[in-house]
Amino acid sequence: MESVELVLTVKSVHRSVGWYCNFLGFTAGFLNEESGEENSLNYAVLRNGNAGIHLGLERDMGVLAGNGRCNFVTRQFDELHKRAVNANATFHVDLGEIPSGARSFGIRDPDGNILTFVETR
User: Fold this and answer.
1) Cα 51 from Cα 73, distance rounded (Å)
2) pLDDT tens, residue by residue, 26-39
3) What is the pLDDT of residue 40?
4) Cα–Cα distance between 87 and 96 in angstroms, integer?
5) CATH C-level class of 6-119
């Protein structure tokens, strides 16, 4: 295997693309729109370095939005934690240390998907 890319189910791909790009620094590599109508964006592939996230629209995915979980290992740990605090993000795990000795914290995206950040050691 070369890599793994997670798929998260969201209620609005358009809103989620904005959040992941603005908040976490991802860029859109692929956007799929069904038509030119509002909220017709039904799938997106985002990238940030080696990390890839696919966002699928709840009505098409067969999974309720907000049931996804993922971990990010990052060198920008302090910056991301500061952004989360300043944005009043919903924390599901406060800043702390995991058994390996690395620091971690966890937040929820706008749909409730759980994102955990772990400091590169």
Assistant:
1) 9
2) 999 999 987 666 66
3) 77
4) 19
5) alpha beta
Cα atoms found within 13 Å of the Cα of residue 60, Cβ hemisphere only: 18
Q: What is the pTM of this model?
A: 0.89
**Token pair for residue 61?**
């995915």
pLDDT score of 70 more than 70? yes
61 in helix, strand or coil? helix
Q: What is the rounded distance in angstroms from the CA atom of residue 104 to the CA atom of residue 106?
A: 7
How far from the centroid of its chain's Cα atoms is residue 103's Cα? 19
Kindly state the greatest CA–CA separation across the chain.
Answer: 49
Q: Residue 35: enclosing H or E segment and its boundaries?
A: none
Contacts of 98 (CB under 8 A, 6+ apart): 104, 118
List the domain boundaries for the chain.
6-119
